[in-house]
Design brief:
This protein is about 70% helix and about 0% strand. It has about 220 residues and is mainly alpha-helical. Helix 6 packs antiparallel against helix 12, helix 9 crosses helix 11 and helix 11 runs antiparallel to helix 12.
């Protein structure tokens, strides 16, 4: 029965038009999930997956980043370019693994984010890990106050927003908030983290647009 299901689920990636080898995809995810005590037999929710990662970071703060990235790189090699193009898209994952719409969106986005954080951004993220973690876990009121203060200084931009259409205004406000947040992190950790944090905000921006498109349909783009 299981073999018959695999034959049925040998689907075409609906976005790219490339074949998605579901048996290979499941095998790669199963090996990867095994590090976190999970299995594709009970495919974990994305929230549960992230909770396991955060738990590992808490339990192994010194080893977490190199170990998590080592596991991700092995997973990425297993996936390879063909599976990445054919399977790691929302519609393909929904068809191949029966994931819900949010889960099928979040898993590829996390993969894309990890590709950056464990690749081009790895050296910066590792060198400034303690500071970035301090920022991530700092009091939200401090962050909000800094961002609001930064926005208040941009009076000319705020004045132009008064005449902007509602949708355009939301997008400009979102962009301004991101730029102010990046300035806050740079003030805390130094100029060297600017591109790294900017790229991370880009991935977060994609998630925000997906979860609340009525706010702004344009995801924040990092131009650094």
């Amino acid at each position: 029965m299981f073999q018959n299901q695999l034959r049925v689920f040998w689907v075409l990636g609906l976005i790219s038009g490339l074949e998605c080898n579901v048996a290979k995809l499941r095998s790669c995810y199963d090996d990867y999930f095994g590090h976190f005590g999970m299995s594709v037999k009970n495919f974990p929710s994305h929230d549960h997956f992230i909770a396991r990662i955060e738990q590992y970071i808490t339990n192994e703060p010194l080893l977490a980043r190199p170990t998590l990235c080592s596991w991700h790189r092995t997973f990425a090699r297993c996936i390879g370019p063909a599976l990445e193009r054919g399977c790691l898209h929302k519609e393909a994952l929904k068809s191949a693994l029966g994931l819900s719409d949010p889960e099928a969106f979040n898993y590829p986005l996390t993969y894309e984010s990890n590709q950056y954080q464990c690749g081009e951004g790895y050296a910066t993220g590792s060198k400034y890990f303690d500071c970035l973690e301090e920022v991530r876990t700092c009091d939200k009121s401090e962050v909000n106050a800094a961002v609001q203060g930064c926005k208040n200084l941009q009076k000319s931009s705020l004045n132009r927003l008064k005449t902007a259409k509602a949708a355009e205004k939301k997008c400009r406000m979102e962009k301004m908030a991101n730029e102010c947040l990046i300035k806050f992190v740079v003030n805390k950790c130094g100029k060297a983290v600017e591109k790294y944090f900017c790229k991370v905000q880009e991935f977060i921006g994609k998630k925000k647009v997906y979860e609340n498109p009525s706010n702004c349909m344009e995801a924040y783009r990092c131009d650094l």
